[in-house]
Amino acid sequence: MKLSDYKTLYIQNKNFKNLFNANLISLFGDWFNFIAITSILLSLSDDSSIVAYMFIIHLLPYVFFTTSGGVLADKMSRRKIMMVSDIARAIIVGAILIAVFFKSVTAILALLFLEYTFAAFFEPSRSAIVPNLVAKKDLYTANAALSTVWSMMMAFGMALGGLVVYLFNAEVALIIDAFTYVLSFIYIKKIRVEETHILPGFTLKLKELFNFKEVKEAILYIRNNVYLLPIVLSKGALEIYVGAFIFLLTLYGEQKFLVLGSGALGMGLLQTMRGIGTGIGPILSRRIFKTTLGDYYSLWMGLLIAPIGYFFLSLTDSFLLALLCVLIAHIGGSANWVTSEQLIHQLVPDGFRGRVVSFEFVFLTLTMSLSVKYGAILIETYHYSLEYSTQIMSYVGVITAIGWAFLTVSVAKPFKRFIKTI
Question: Do 391 and 314 contact (CB within 8 A), yes or no?
Answer without folding.
Answer: yes
